[in-house]
Amino acid sequence: MKTTINILLITLIAVGSNNITNAQIPVLEKSYEVSNKAKRGFLDKIEINKETGNIDILYALPNALTTKRDLFLSTLVFGAVTGNKAKYEIYSYDKDLNLIGTSREEERVYFEPYPEYSYTTAEPTMRASCLCLSFKQVEVKAEYNWFSGYKKTTKVIDKKKAQSEDDNNYSFTGRHYELPSQKSILVLAGKKIKKDMWSAYTKYDILNVDNELNMKVTESFELEFGSVVIYSAPLKDEKAATNDELARDWIMVFAPMKASKGTPNDFTYFRINSQGKIVERLVINSPSNGWNIEGTYEQNGSVYLYGSSISKDPSQKYYEDVVKKGWNELTATHYQLAKITKGKLDYITATALSDISTKQATPTNQKKPLEIDGKTYQTTGIRFLESGDVIFTYQDYEIKDGEVHVAGGTYKSVYLFQYDISGAFKKSFGVDINPDLSNVKKVSRNTWEHLPADHYFYPSVDGKRMYWLIRSAKDVASFGSSSAEHNDIVCKPMNGIDYGSINFETGEISEFKTIGAEKKPYYLFSKTSGTQVGNFIYFFSETEKGDKMLLSRIDISK
Length: 558
Hints:
- This protein is mainly beta.
- 5% of the residues lie in helices and 49% in strands.
- The strands form eight sheets. The chain has a five-stranded antiparallel sheet. Strands 2, 33, 34, 35 and 36 form a five-stranded antiparallel sheet that branches.
């Protein structure tokens, strides 16, 4: 059986090798030179035979008409729909990363094309004349661009005002849930009832609207006090299917409005299925009156809600008193976690960020702990250990003066927060993954950091440790050209892997290193990450020029 890794960037061949062994984590690394022709070509895929551990690296070669790599890529992609072809070279390695040999394939279609596609959908909008809910029927067309991916254009086909069964208007809440597999959307609509000023904030319908703008009410509910939605998103889980393929339930959380006189920190939680029916409803007395719920996750039938929060006199001050600005302009004081099972609250805890900082462990080769200031941050993931503990990956970032806000800001250090089965905080771990800015191109310093890190976890064979691998941007690669008339430069992040291990029972963390750091800088081939075969995890990297390739293997059996 072969594991195939489909790639989207650059290439390689062989000459030197070297081993690096981390005293904490055994790592084997071997580098190989890249042929000039292959360097101008394109890495298509990597195949790993799970029985033998042998590795085949396949890449397309340029032809006489495409001597420049940018032109080669454009020609292949542009001509893919007509069956464009390229010659291939295959580089084969054994499980110990030794070169077995190379071979050449005759011309063939280099990959499946990215087809254009279109669909029709409904979009909620606000009608200016009545400040009420309306719907647009929109035709969406998508075309593929090599450097930026699919680009969508929209065209409005029809419009329709939304009205309740008693001919009243609905208020526009801005909350809806797309259901591509059902060709419809679910919409939260507040009822606008004459002589009832609170109706738009207390009485709601859930609407199902199909792509022909046919509308039906799937559920109606009423809140005791006027409230606003502070969270609305599909529930996440461990299933491989995307939400487009398998619609999850819809989670919404409401906070009471100050003028309504409700209990300030009583938040109302709803779980709504893809048919628009309420399956869970619960009032949560929150320890924090300002809760930035960053995600919800289902595990073994329970729903976890999590995110940073602000606690300021929660029994007296309302959400709107605390969250007067965007969360990027506020300073969080706590991290809050709740667990709900079958519509009942198992626990809700709020841990001061100062306590999380105090209980922080750092790698043995890191000089000092990292500050968790609560100013700008993002929870990037959740994971469950066999013990029942919950861990969160968390990253802070910085919005610089005059900086264009892209996906957060300038991402900085990463953290792990560990909670026990009862929701009590246990330990935090902080790792500085920032590259030395002296090694980062000056032109890229305002762009390379705009992507949060990805995290990968692998348990050791003896079950005592968890290997923690962090994929993050270390620099950028630039393509295209610019002039006074136009700018066709596109920047792509060049990613690296930092690795170490954690003993969650003792709270100890190993030293952290970067793959290829003891050689010249190497960066992961685009859109690749670790591939596990047995007790080995493989990574494939290259230099910025593409003249050398680095094969790395981490042994998690030790």
